[in-house]
Design goal:
The chain is of the alpha+beta class. It is built from four helices and three strands; from the N terminus they run H-H-E-E-H-H-E. A three-stranded mixed β-sheet has the order 1-2-3, covered by helices on one side. Strand 1 and strand 2 form a beta hairpin.
Length: 106
């Protein structure tokens, strides 16, 4: 097999590639996107949803701001919706290897 054939052969393994999984990624992008998606799905005023991210050595702190009228929807009865949001966002963070916490701010 010539050098040209080796370069175009799909079965040829190229050991010189860099693993792109750890490239230029934003830390906590997935948990932040998941939180924003969930919040916008729950509230009436989607434009008022703001997610602030703060990275620390313990992980990622996500602060969710919503309109005062939508606060009850996001928290839910006895905080069940808020706890479910925290669980899903924490799972999304674990998928990226980040400890993500959610704080719902007035």
């Amino acid at each position: 097999m010539s050098d040209v054939d080796a370069a175009t052969d799909p079965n040829q393994v190229d050991d010189g590639d860099i693993d792109d999984d750890e490239g230029n990624r934003v830390v906590g992008a997935m948990p932040r996107a998941v939180l924003e998606y969930l919040a916008k799905s729950i509230v009436d005023d989607e434009e008022s949803v703001v997610v602030e991210a703060e990275e620390s050595r313990n992980g990622l702190m996500l602060r969710l701001h919503v309109a005062p009228a939508d606060m009850g929807r996001v928290i839910g009865r006895r905080g069940r919706v808020a706890q479910a949001i925290r669980t899903v966002v924490r799972a999304a963070g674990a998928r990226e290897g980040v400890d993500a916490e959610v704080d719902i701010v007035d």
